[in-house]
Design a protein that fits this description.
Elements (H helix, E strand, L loop, with lengths): L1 E6 L9 H9 L5 H9 L3 E3 L2 E2 L11 E6 L16 E4 L3 E6 L16 H8 L23 E7 L2 H12 L4 E9 L6 E5 L2 E3 L7 E3 L10 E9 L3 E8 L6 H8 L21 E9 L6 E5 L4 H9 L3
Helix pairs in contact: 1-2
């Protein structure tokens, strides 16, 4: 167990506790980790546990208790990984469709994390016991490029880049119908559906809605489907799938959001990924080819 102490300075008076800690500790810990500390009653103001909304005052002593990491119970598995790049800080993987990012609930095997644990001796622990090294996610049935962190400093740096929207991400999608305009911008708020919390949807009234922006460019039109290149300005859960479904052009193969025919999974591929290396500071950009199922549909020219 580790303990840290900070004293509130005059310029920090009246700040919310969570904002104070983020500014004081962000170079050491991620915002999500700081939130977990507060929610877990591991932050004390003058000896008393306080919530995130507490307003700190000049001179108050803030103690942060870092609990011992829980032992990782996940089993490393020799799962083949298509590695596009790797060094001592990061690993870039071209994920196959059908593999989950990390374990959930009772399913603790067969995930990308299990494969990473086998391949890498160490991974950043910031992602938590079940998500070591995971900085961002792709849906189980989405293919393409992602980056994982091999140490905590790399994880914090990459997380900040995603939060600041300096990461370059481009996707290719095959969508139902003919998209009329060559270019477009979809700016619609997204929230979790109350009647089915596994699904997201466009919402203008839910208090927990989050702004979401997707831009697209038409690459090719066929008789009954369109090939799009998409860029994300935000990174909401199921963002591309929800936005395209809402405008009447659901992803081919997307059973959850409205167009189940054509492929056995949603036709979405993370084709381009670019970021600043967390220690070398160089901008690195990677691209990957479309997987066989999507390319085969394009070659046929019809669903």
């Amino acid at each position: 167990m580790e303990e840290l102490e900070r004293t509130v300075e005059k310029k920090e008076d009246s700040k919310r506790l969570d904002k104070f800690l983020v500014e004081a500790l962000e170079k050491k810990f991620s915002r999500s980790f700081i939130k977990k500390l507060i929610d877990g009653n591991n932050v004390f103001v003058n000896g008393e546990s306080q919530n995130a909304h507490y307003k700190v005052s000049e001179g108050e002593k803030i103690k942060i208790v870092i609990p011992e990491a829980k032992p990782l119970e996940l089993k490393p598995e020799n799962i083949p990984l298509d590695i596009a790049y790797e060094d001592e800080d990061v690993v870039v993987i071209n994920k196959s469709p059908g593999i989950s990012m990390h374990p959930t609930g009772a399913y603790l095997t067969g995930t990308l994390v299990n494969g990473l644990l086998y391949h890498c001796k160490d991974l950043s622990g910031i992602g938590g016991v079940l998500r070591p090294g995971i900085v961002h996610r792709l849906d189980k049935d989405t293919s393409g490029l992602l980056v994982a962190a091999k140490n905590d400093l790399a994880h914090i740096n990459l997380s900040n880049q995603f939060r600041n929207r300096s990461v370059k991400r481009k996707y290719v999608a095959l969508v139902k119908g003919i998209v009329e305009h060559d270019n477009g911008r979809i700016e619609l708020p997204i929230a979790r559906r109350k009647k089915d919390i596994t699904k997201m949807g466009v919402s203008f009234v839910d208090e927990k809605k989050k702004n979401a922006i997707t831009t697209y460019k038409v690459l090719k039109r066929f008789g009954d489907f369109t090939v799009l290149e998409l860029s994300l300005q935000t990174g909401r859960t199921h963002q591309i799938r929800v936005h395209l479904s809402h405008i009447g052009h659901a992803l081919i193969g997307d059973k959850m959001y409205g167009s189940p025919k054509g492929l056995s999974r949603q036709a979405l591929h993370a084709k381009t990924l670019g970021f600043f290396h967390p220690t070398k500071k160089d901008f690195m950009e990677f691209t990957s080819e479309l997987p066989e199922d999507m390319q085969g549909l394009i070659n046929r020219g019809k669903i």
